[in-house]
Design a protein that fits this description.
The structure holds 2 protein chains of 2 kinds.
Chain A: H1 4-17, H2 33-55, H3 57-63, H4 65-78, H5 93-98, H6 109-124, H7 133-137, E1 147-151, E2 155-160, H8 164-170, E3 188-195, E4 198-204, H9 206-216, H10 221-231, H11 237-247, E5 250-255
Antiparallel strand pairs in A: 1-5, 2-3, 3-4
Helix pairs in contact in A: 1-2, 2-4, 3-4, 3-6, 6-8, 9-10
Chain B: E1 24-27, H1 33-39, E2 45-49, H2 58-68, E3 72-76, H3 90-103, E4 107-111, E5 114-117, E6 120-126, H4 132-149, E7 154-156, H5 171-182, E8 185-189, H6 190-200, H7 204-210, E9 216-221, E10 225-229, E11 232-236, H8 245-258, E12 263-265, H9 274-295
Parallel strand pairs in B: 1-2, 1-12, 2-3, 3-4, 4-7, 7-8, 8-9, 9-12
Antiparallel strand pairs in B: 5-6, 10-11
Helix pairs in contact in B: 1-2, 4-5, 5-7, 7-8, 8-9
Classes of the chains: A alpha+beta, B alpha/beta.
Amino acid sequence: MPALRELQEAVFDALFRRNERATAEVRDQGLAPARRLQIYRNNMMVSLADALAAVYPVVQRLVGEDFFRHSARRYIPLHPSRAGHLQPFGAAYAEFLAGFEPAAGLPYLPDVARLEWAWHEVFHAAAAPPLDLARLAAVPEDARDGVQLHLQPAARLVASDYPVLSIWQTNQDGHAGDSTLSLDSGGEQVLVIQRDLEVELHALGRAEHELLDRLARGATLAEAAEAAFAREPEFDFAAQFARHLALGSFAGLALAA
Amino acid sequence: MDVSNWRAGPAPQMDAAAALPARAGMGLRPQHYLEFLQRRPDVGFIEVHSENYFGQGGKAYDCLLRARADYAVSLHGVGLSLGSADPLNRDHIAELKRLIDAVEPAAVSDHVCWSSVGTVYANDLLPLPYTREALDHMVRRVDAVQQALGRRILVENVSSYLEFECSQMSEWDFLAELAQASGCGILLDVNNIYVSACNHGFDPHAYLAAIAPHKVEEIHLAGFTRKQFEDGEILIDTHSRPVADDVWQLYAAALARFGPVATLIEWDTDLPPLDDLLHEVRHAQTLLEASHARIA
C-alpha cells in the first residue's frame, strides 16, 4: 500500500505530466482508472484556464479563445498555482507570453497582459487613505526636497512602447468610436488606481510617469522631479503634482535621512 | 499513530450565539452582490469562499462587509489542503485568521480532501484514500488548524470521480471518525453524497445513517452535470444547475435524521438571475420548516 505522500505525488504526476503510474492505485470498476484521472486533469486545466481568462480578458479578445486556451495549457504546468487561493495565479503570464513563440507576431501582447495584471492587483488591493495635504504642508520649506512620497498601495504604473491603454480601451465591452489603432502611434504610460472601490486607468505623460515611477522606487521629491525634467524640459511639475495629490496617487510621506 | 490513542487538544468552543441559524442561506457571488445589497432578500445566512477575500480590499470585500452587517456569514474555504502530506501552509492559515478577525463569521469550514504537493496547488478538491494513515493525518491537521484559528471548524465531504484501491474504510466511516476524534463539526454536502453514490455505486442512505446527528452543523445543496463516456456515465459536481429532484429527496431524508440544520444553496458557474437562486433557497426553507414542524 503506498504511503499518503507517494499516492499524492503519483496523482500529481498524472495531473501535470500525464504519467500513468497512478492508474494502478485507482479502483478499476466501471469507468477506466485512466479516464477517472483524466477527469481530474481536465477539471484542473479548465478551472485554471478560466481563472487566467478572468484576469486577462483583453488578451483573450485579441488572440481568440482557442489560442488563449492553448497558451493556458502551456502556461499552467510551467507556472502552476503556488497558493491555496488564486489571487497570485497568472502573475508570470506576461513574461510567459514574451517568450511564447506562437505570439511572436503580436509584440504588444505582453504589455497588454502587464496592464491587465496591474488592474487585477489594484482591484483586490486594500487602498490606503490618500496623503493628507496637511502633512505635506507641515514639512519645513528647506526639507521639502528630501521628502519621499509613497505611492498608493492600490495603484500600479505600467509603461509600454506600444499604445497599451488605447488597445485596452478599444477592447472593452461597449467601446464606441474608432476601433482601429496604429501601433506606430507611440508608447503609452498608465496609472492604474483604485478610487472609491473602482479601478481607474489614467494616461500619463512620459515625464509624469518618470516622476511617479522614481517616487515609487524611493527617490526623493527633488530627485524624482529632476528625472522628470530630464525627460521633458518643459514638464509642468506644479500642475502634474497637484493632479496626483487630487487623484490620491500618494498615500504616505517620509523624510529622507 | 492510531486515532484511538490520539488526544486532540481541547477543541476551542464556538460561541453558541455565533452559530449559523437553522435556516436556508445562499452562496453570495460577486455577480449578485449589488442586487443582493439593494434588495436585502430574506435569507437565513450568506456564505462566501474565504480565499476570494484574502486581499481584504476592493469592491468585493467592501460588499462582504456591508452584507455582514445584516446577515450571518459562513466563511467556506477551498484551499487549506487539509489532507495533503506536505506541511500545513502557515501563510494561508494566517490570512484566514486575519479574515475571520475582520468578518467574525458564524461558521468556518473547509474540505476533507487534498489539493497540493510541495508548493504546487491543483486548485481542485482531490479525494483522499480512506486509510488509517490518512485519517490520523487529517485528525492532526484539523486539530492544528482549530488551535491556530482558536475556534472549531466544519469539514465537508467532497464529490469524487475515483476511489483508491488502498482505502480501508468507507468515506462515511472516515468522516464520522474524523469529526469524533478532532472535535470538528461536519458540513454535510448532500449533493456530493448523491454524486459520489452514483459514481461509485453505494447507498447514499447508508452514508447518512453513519453520521451522528449532533455533528452536522451545516448542509450544502447544489446542482451537478451528467457526463457520458463510451465506458459509462459520471456525475460531475459543477454547481452550475438547480438542485436535482433526487438530491431534494435525499435532503428530506437528511433533515429527518439530523433535524433542522443551516442549509446552503451553492451556485458557482453559469450563475442564474438572483431570483432563480432565491427560488431554490425558498424551497430548502420550506423543507426545513416542515422538519421543524415534525419535531415540534
